[in-house]
Amino acid sequence: MALKVYADRMSQPSRAVILFCKVNGIDFEEILVDIFKNEQFSPEYKAINPMHQVPAIVDGRFKLSESHAILIYICCAFPGVASHWYPGDLIKRAKIHSVLDWHHANLRRGSAGLVFNTLLAQLDGHHSYPQVVNQAEGILLKSLSMLEKFWLKDGRFLVGGSQPSIADISLVCEIMQLELLSEKERDRILGPFKKVVQWIEDTKIATAPHFDEVHGVLFNAQKRFRERMKTKPELKAKL
Amino acid sequence: MALKVYADRMSQPSRAVILFCKVNGIDFEEILVDIFKNEQFSPEYKAINPMHQVPAIVDGRFKLSESHAILIYICCAFPGVASHWYPGDLIKRAKIHSVLDWHHANLRRGSAGLVFNTLLAQLDGHHSYPQVVNQAEGILLKSLSMLEKFWLKDGRFLVGGSQPSIADISLVCEIMQLELLSEKERDRILGPFKKVVQWIEDTKIATAPHFDEVHGVLFNAQKRFRERMKTKPELKAKL
């Protein structure tokens, strides 16, 4: 029975797992859990992941949530995965764990916080507090600066890699969420970080043609959001 | 040369690493980076960890930050560590990764957010927003509920363990930060979660006598904070 991946491509960790499976030729079945329809709260999905989050996997009788744990599991459970994705070397592996752990409270918190509070919440009519938006943008800019100066200082890929690891897939899929902002906003945020911009390109190339295919939903959503924003005068300035 | 652990026992991930080393008889040197004196921002410490956070380790020429990555590294690099702390079995290990990843955006965010915004920020004269406090408490209560109903459902320790893993050390050290709140507040928050309370006790017993020794700084800080709060009328109600 093929690995089951419960996911919504609008979620950045879902895309990371799907992209990784595709790039590595893993035999898997993708099952949509539509987060805009709150399907992650359904009783059926609760039996898969009581945390109500995507992605989750089911491999035989084994259920697992949290995208980083899933990526590591797939690397170890499927013999065909090349070693550069999750090297056996103790020090290389420790560095990958370190950047993946750092991701949670830094890049993810900044990027997801900014996109949610500037765009998604407002489109749904929720109030957005300027302090919250400013704090998220601050965390994002600091995280991008750490990527530029530290995590990417020794190689084309994270933590000195000459080939991508699971950390590159995870973190680039996170940054891609900024596609939901306007081009102007995205360029203002990412523009100053030349190494980061090059690394995103290098990761896209290393995972082509799957990268664009997996992100297609996001690009389409961006167009739809632009259309909806045009109908909301208070959001027009952000286009 | 012994492993160097840069830490401040007031930080919950610092305590997790120190406690783990002591319980496993690792030969290590503890170097205080006093976070209340902002020593994590010194040029000397920047050379150890540019992220300005504790803990970090130096093992020979290898530097590593992020407590979960450090705990995994020590399990793999030091032959004397018993296998229950980080089992080689693929599925057991995957579950440990999963709960450690979950910790970041859930238990840690709730617990650290609540303690900081109800106590530390106010003692330092920072303004604390009720929405922020309520949000942190909500995340904490939801996290404790998930621990009770899901992560502790299959055994005395997390993810079905009959002996503790690095995840038990990490998450219990996090919850211990609630000691900084008043006994009344702590009991109100933890009281309804009987399995969680028993698991904290079981982890204390499994790591005795080091557990109390490593948390001594926290217990002393609690007494000092109580004294300072008595001088602030607006905080007296929280004693």
Automatic annotation (TrEMBL), chains A, B:
BP GO annotations: toxin catabolic process
UniProt-listed PROSITE patterns: GST_CTER, GST_NTER
UniProt keyword annotation of Transferase present: yes
Record-linked InterPro entries: Glutathione-S-Trfase_C-like (IPR010987), Glutathione-S-Trfase_C_sf (IPR036282), Glutathione_S-Trfase (IPR040079), Glutathione_S-Trfase_N (IPR004045), GST_N_Theta (IPR040075), GSTT1/2/3 (IPR043377), Thioredoxin-like_sf (IPR036249)
Gene3D superfamilies referenced in this protein's UniProt entry, alphabetically: 1.20.1050.10, Glutaredoxin
Keywords: Detoxification, Transferase
Superkingdom of source: Eukaryota
EC number: 2.5.1.18
A Pfam match: GST_N
Protein name: glutathione transferase
PANTHER family reported in the protein's UniProt record: GLUTATHIONE S-TRANSFERASE T1-RELATED
Catalytic activity as recorded in UniProt: RX + glutathione = an S-substituted glutathione + a halide anion + H(+)
Protein family membership: Belongs to the GST superfamily. Theta family.
Domain GST C-terminal as annotated: residue spans: 89-233
GST N-terminal domain residues: 1-82
GO terms for MF: glutathione transferase activity
